[in-house]
From TrEMBL:
<feature type="domain" description="LysM">
    <location>
        <begin position="224"/>
        <end position="268"/>
    </location>
</feature>
<comment type="similarity">
    <text>Belongs to the leucine-binding protein family.</text>
</comment>
<feature type="domain" description="LysM">
    <location>
        <begin position="23"/>
        <end position="66"/>
    </location>
</feature>
<dbReference type="InterPro" id="IPR036779">
    <property type="entry name" value="LysM_dom_sf"/>
</dbReference>
<dbReference type="Pfam" id="PF13458">
    <property type="entry name" value="Peripla_BP_6"/>
</dbReference>
<feature type="domain" description="LysM">
    <location>
        <begin position="165"/>
        <end position="213"/>
    </location>
</feature>
<protein>
    <submittedName>
        <fullName>LysM peptidoglycan-binding domain-containing protein</fullName>
    </submittedName>
</protein>
<keyword id="KW-0732">Signal</keyword>
<dbReference type="Pfam" id="PF01476">
    <property type="entry name" value="LysM"/>
</dbReference>
<dbReference type="InterPro" id="IPR028081">
    <property type="entry name" value="Leu-bd"/>
</dbReference>
<dbReference type="InterPro" id="IPR018392">
    <property type="entry name" value="LysM"/>
</dbReference>
<feature type="domain" description="LysM">
    <location>
        <begin position="90"/>
        <end position="134"/>
    </location>
</feature>
<dbReference type="InterPro" id="IPR028082">
    <property type="entry name" value="Peripla_BP_I"/>
</dbReference>
<feature type="signal peptide">
    <location>
        <begin position="1"/>
        <end position="19"/>
    </location>
</feature>
């Protein structure tokens, strides 16, 4: 049977996610935007929104993209799901007994429209006395969304009345991705294929298509429409779609005339149709984006406002505090480092849950004490229901983490371990949020490879670092090598390999306090000869914290090293810091900030996609918060591990920043 492949393009124009159909219109002689709008029963603004160049006039035979909306005839129009953005907002102070429904009736807007512009209402009820924004639309236009079917049988009956076609599953495809491609919900896709539980490449799925009576024409699949979000920039859009800023301007010349504005609909490359080999890399400003892909802002993509169910499994061991008549709880906590870390971590997590609520993400939380025991993990899971749990955050220790992941893998519940970098027995639901030391070293080596080709490379290494030394030597065959011995590196040996007219990059590979201390001291003395020296290491061990190694000396050498976290910027994070200090009376430490960052990342992923696993298919790139960033990749033995690493540098004023040597901009003024 031959099928007519009529594919509707889906443009997510609101939180409620209505499917929008489009067609091409070829302009005839004498037609104007006004006359075309009347022919299709849409406004001129609708045409301009998808054809920004039409504001400069239209020519015969040119093509316009026309949005086609299904309207419910004979029903009173209620504003709220129109493709148009509101032209203004009314401020409404909530009075006693008022509800969202009563306000929707009063202002003739839909409840969903009110929620869209007051996101806190997704997760909490109206509060007497609060002021909310009521959108006012220019056009009164109701698009009717088909109600969700209550049973699989009803869904199948609907599709039986329409044309059914089939889809062959490709490697790495997901139910969410296939459903989205054909304009279905996952529930509808599963109803059409009740015997398919797990997708396997090569199997055939039934996919339904409601054939529109209108002639909907397939748009060029290499492009899609994208609605500009608040505070988005041209640079950010170039990052998102893997093109240059000039490419976006060429596709949308209206930007140069009117500037980039919230709500503007742009023509952009379709990421699903782009060939990665042909992507034009955007201009990047920092090493982090250059080495580890594009940065994501999941707050711009929130669509799943179903309440989230989180479980925290933390090693409190409250039953072993061992209090006596002379010992208080405070003393006991101070004596137990793991307990202190657990409390700090959860304090940050609580802040993230509260902040997510302001974005419309409601969270149900349960906390279990693991008692640092795998058997306690098993007992907790056996005696409590985890059926609706979206993610587990917590088991800090290897044994408890492995026990939780193994027990919950049959239900495919993600388990995030936040602090350990150890290799763990893989379960496909295990997410290790801390990179390995090897991963950190490799990121540093990639950084050296990228930015060190025109530098005078000097490798200082002891016998224990021979593997790392050989790796670096393969990248830089002409590197000068100093084999440290007897716990000391002399100033003379370093001076012999440094070049006065070049940028000298010294890579120090040792965990010996003596070797590190003597190298750092000697290099600082050589700075007096106006040599340009930068110090690097692929592994900043605890030896660098020894009192014989001065941070001031490291700063003069612009010391570069890999790190899991950066220092938060007090200005950027001022709101978080103020709220945390008001809540807990102290400045958050690294464990509190990590608790915040990890929990916020999990909640945003759950709110931006169907579930955690779908989020990695939907969004490619790394996420970043106050001190931590996350880029999960599959592990060979199963599960996922965070591979996101910072390259940091210490400056002479002892400030810490993300390094960026892309423009060789580290030439020093040595007379300062």
């Amino acid at each position: 049977m031959r099928y007519l492949f009529l594919i509707c393009f889906f443009c997510m124009m609101s939180v409620s996610g209505f499917a929008q159909k489009f067609k091409y219109h070829t302009v005839k002689k004498g037609e104007t935007v006004y006359s075309i709008s009347k022919d299709y029963d849409i406004s001129e603004e609708d045409i301009y929104k998808y054809n920004s160049d039409a504001k400069n006039g239209i020519e015969q035979s040119s093509k316009l993209v026309i949005p086609i909306a299904e309207r419910d005839k004979g029903m009173p129009a209620k504003v709220g799901t129109s493709s148009l953005e509101p032209v203004e907002f009314k401020q409404h102070k909530v009075e006693k007994k008022e509800t969202l429904f009563s306000l929707s009736q009063q202002y003739n807007v839909e409840v969903e429209a009110i929620k869209r512009y007051n996101k806190q209402l997704y997760s909490k009820e109206l509060q007497k006395g609060e002021t909310i924004r009521i959108p006012v639309f220019r056009k009164i236009d109701r698009v009717v969304a088909k109600p969700e079917k209550s049973s699989k049988e009803e869904i199948r009956q609907e599709f039986d009345e329409n044309e059914i076609r089939e889809h062959v599953v490709l490697p790495k495809e997901t139910k969410y991705g296939i459903a989205r491609k054909y304009g279905l919900t996952v529930k509808e896709l599963e109803a059409l294929n009740p015997t398919v539980n797990v997708l396997q490449p090569g199997i055939m799925l039934k996919v339904g298509t409601n054939v529109s009576p209108e002639p909907v024409v397939l748009l060029d699949k290499k492009f899609e429409f994208y609605e500009v979000k608040p505070q988005e920039t041209l640079f950010g859009l170039a990052q998102r779609f893997h093109v240059t800023q000039d490419s976006i301007l060429a596709l949308n010349p209206i930007i140069e005339k009117e500037g980039l504005e919230w709500g503007m609909v742009l023509k952009v490359p379709n990421p699903e149709e782009q060939n990665p080999d042909n992507w034009v890399e955007p201009t990047l400003t920092s090493e982090a984006e250059e080495l580890q892909g594009k940065k994501l802002n999941l707050k711009d993509s929130l669509s799943n406002f179903r309440p989230k169910n989180l479980v925290f499994m933390l090693p409190y061991s409250l039953d072993k505090l061992g209090l006596d008549s002379t010992k208080t709880y405070k003393d006991a906590i101070l004596d137990d480092r793991v307990l202190r870390i657990s409390l700090d971590f959860y304090s940050g997590a609580k802040m993230a849950i509260e902040d997510a609520k302001e974005l419309g993400i409601s969270t149900n939380v349960k906390v279990y004490d693991t008692k640092r025991s795998a058997s306690e993990i098993a007992n907790t899971i056996n005696t409590n229901s985890f059926r609706d749990v979206d993610a587990v955050i917590g088991p800090f220790l290897q044994s408890t983490t492995e026990a939780a992941a193994q027990r919950l893998k049959s239900e495919n519940i993600p388990v995030f371990t936040p602090l350990s970098d150890k290799e763990m027995q893989g379960a496909n639901n295990l997410f290790i949020a801390r990179p390995t030391k090897v991963s950190m070293a490799n990121t540093m080596i990639d950084y050296l490879r990228k930015f060190g080709q025109d530098k005078n490379i000097v490798i200082v290494a002891d016998a224990n670092a021979y593997q790392t030394k050989n790796k670096i030597n393969q990248i830089f065959p002409s590197a000068r090598v100093i084999n440290a011995s007897n716990g000391f590196v002399s100033e003379a040996s370093l001076k012999n390999v440094l070049v006065p007219t070049a940028q000298n990059w010294v890579i120090l590979e040792s965990s010996s306090v003596g070797i590190i201390s003597s190298t750092v001291s000697a290099l600082n003395r050589l700075l007096r000869d106006e040599l340009n020296i930068t110090l690097f290491t692929t592994s900043k061990s605890d030896s660098y914290d020894n009192e014989s190694i001065s941070n001031a000396d490291l700063g003069k050498l612009y010391f570069h090293y890999p790190s899991v976290e950066k220092e938060y910027d007090p200005e950027i994070s001022s709101t978080f810091l103020e709220k945390y200090e008001n809540e807990f009376g102290v400045t958050p430490n690294q464990y509190a900030v990590r608790g915040y960052d990890l929990t916020m990342d999990v909640l945003l992923r759950l709110a931006a996609s169907k579930d955690i696993y779908a989020s990695f298919n939907d969004f490619k790139g790394f996420t970043e918060y106050h001190e931590n960033k996350f880029l999960y990749e599959p592990q060979t033995g199963g599960g996922f591990r965070n591979k996101a690493v910072y390259i940091l540098q210490i400056n002479p004023d002892l400030t810490l920043q993300i390094a960026d040597d892309s423009k060789s901009n580290i030439l020093r003024e040595f007379k300062d």
